Amino acid sequence: KYHFLSPLVINRDKPEELSFGIKDIETNRILTKVEEVKKEIYFDTANPFNGTLVSRYLVSKIGFPMQEFFIWGEEVEFMRRAMKHGFKVVTIPKAKFFAPGKKFEERRVFNFFILWADSPLRSYCLIRNTAYIYRKYRRKELIRYFYRAFLAFLTGKLTFQEYRFYLSAFFDGLLGIW
């Protein structure tokens, strides 16, 4: 029935929390706690490549994950590509996968977060790959992603050097420079 099935991804160090959260599209909320997960199936949301099952048919239609993404975001790009081609992405909470928690920090700026990874390489890949994904699949978000970093810099959540780093990675993603 579905070609892209994901389990509920639970933080192995804090089993009451989800490792990354899932979106409930009906309430437009990101669920972060296991106790908040009430439905038997969640559509158009997943934490791909954490125990995810994809059909051979899906791969034959959209291809493999982009190797250029290297370590961050290849699963999100693959999921977005599947959705763009009309495949339903689902999370099945009865299926559980235990994974480490987030490998990034969330720097709060007003009512949003800037994500910064636990190493320069991961930060670069996170920013570059996110910019690429937004350019390709979520154009409206691209401008917001750019301005969030600018606001983070203005409010002191990013240093000047971090902001320069961000801009370099952002424009590499925008231009598809790997």
Shape: globular
Low-pLDDT stretches are: none
Listing every helix as H and every strand as E from the N terminus to the C terminus, the arrangement reads EEEEEHHEEEHHH
Radius of gyration: 17 Å
Number of strands: 8
- Counted by DSSP, the helix tally is 5
Q: What's the rounded overall pLDDT mean? A: 93
Instruction: Name the strands of the widest sheet in spatial order.
Output: 4-6-1-5
Query: Main beta sheet, described?
Result: 4 strands, mixed
From the helix content, strand content and strand pairing, which structural class follows? alpha+beta
Give the amount of beta strand, in percent. Answer: 25-35%
N-to-C terminal Cα separation, in Å?
36 Å
Helix content: 25-40%
Structural notes for this entry:
This protein has 178 residues and is of the alpha+beta class. 38% of the residues lie in helices and 27% in strands. The chain contains five helices and eight strands. The strands form three sheets. A four-stranded mixed beta sheet has the order 4-6-1-5. Strands 2-3 form a two-stranded antiparallel sheet. A two-stranded antiparallel sheet has the order 7-8. Helix 3 runs antiparallel to helix 4, helix 3 (120-137) packs across helix 5 and helix 4 (139-154) runs antiparallel to helix 5.
